[in-house]
Design brief:
By secondary structure, this protein is an all-alpha fold. About 45% of the residues lie in helices and about 0% in strands. It has three helices and no strands.
Length: about 110
């Protein structure tokens, strides 16, 4: 399952390919083709070149996607903040957050 932020699966970012499903083992594909003595070197070289070419690009793309996502999150957060900080004056009524009620589960609660 692709992650929304990286646009890739964790398996893909580590191994440079999609995971092989059990059904793919019955059907010969590039990833599951039988390796014999004759084609071992060729298959190994092909896989190595594929990793060199694609894995670094996938990781760079994932980092770019993460940075874009973080920028969007920062933008959304900053849009929710008020433009000007709130300044209180003496005599203004404010809501006081009582932390004693939160501590009632961590020990003895004394409402005094």
């Amino acid at each position: 399952m692709k992650q929304n932020t990286t646009q890739a699966t964790p398996f893909e970012l580590i191994y440079g390919r999609t995971a092989t499903l059990p059904v793919e083992i019955k059907v010969n594909t590039y990833l599951t083709e039988p390796i014999t003595e004759e084609n071992f070197q060729e298959t190994l070289l092909r896989r190595t070149y594929d990793l060199i070419e694609t894995l670094e690009n996938k990781r760079k793309k994932a980092v770019d996607n993460i940075q874009k996502s973080q920028e969007k999150q920062k933008e959304r957060h900053n849009n929710q903040l008020p433009d000007k900080p709130v300044k209180f004056k003496i005599g203004d009524k404010v809501l006081l957050h009582c932390t004693k009620a939160e501590k009632q589960w961590s020990g003895k609660f004394d409402p005094k």
